[in-house]
Amino acid sequence: MIEIEIDNRSGVAVDEQGACELARRVLAGEGVDAGELGLVFVAPDESRALKHEHLGIDEATDALAFPMDAREGLPEGLPRQLGDVVVCPQVVGEAWRPPLVHALLHLLGYDHGDAMEAQEALYR
User: Fold this and answer.
1) Residue-by-residue pLDDT tens, the chain, 124 positions
2) Where are the alpha helices (DSSP H) in the chain?
3) Taking a C-beta distance cutoff of 8 angstroms, is the pair 85, 100 a contact?
4) Rounded to two decimals, what is the model's pTM?
């Protein structure tokens, strides 16, 4: 089972249930049926600070991925820590699904390019 911990500190209402459903669908489609995922919604200032700190780019962004275990082999009995996805609702607006899918695929080890674009198309 995928356990999702949600933290909405964006200051706006978000479709938490829809985001969880989409995350579970993407992860199941990628063969991940167990693990823990953090899903964090942040305001533009926090999004900007995170992107600057981790990517050296000074701008708010739609979504960021902070992978942990991805698809690496784990010792028996240890839960898979997929990592965290950070989404900025004020940047993505109603079009939050594609950035969430993109960030989830990054958690699983995809890099930008044709393979990632093909996988993103599966979850539209």
Assistant:
1) 889 999 999 999 999 999 999 999 999 999 888 889 999 999 999 999 999 999 899 999 999 999 886 666 666 766 668 899 999 999 999 999 999 999 999 999 899 999 999 999 999 8
2) 16-29, 44-55, 89-92, 97-107, 114-122
3) yes
4) 0.89
The owner of tokens 């109603």 is: 94
CA 103 – CA 38 distance, rounded (Å): 12
- Spatial neighbors of 109 by CB under 8 A, at least 6 apart, are 67, 70, 71
Q: How far apart are CA 56 and CA 122, in angstroms?
A: 31
Q: Are 103 and 64 in contact (CB under 8 A)?
A: yes
Length of the chain (residues): 124
The residues, any chain, with a CB within 8 Å of residue 122's CB and separated by 6 or more, are 29
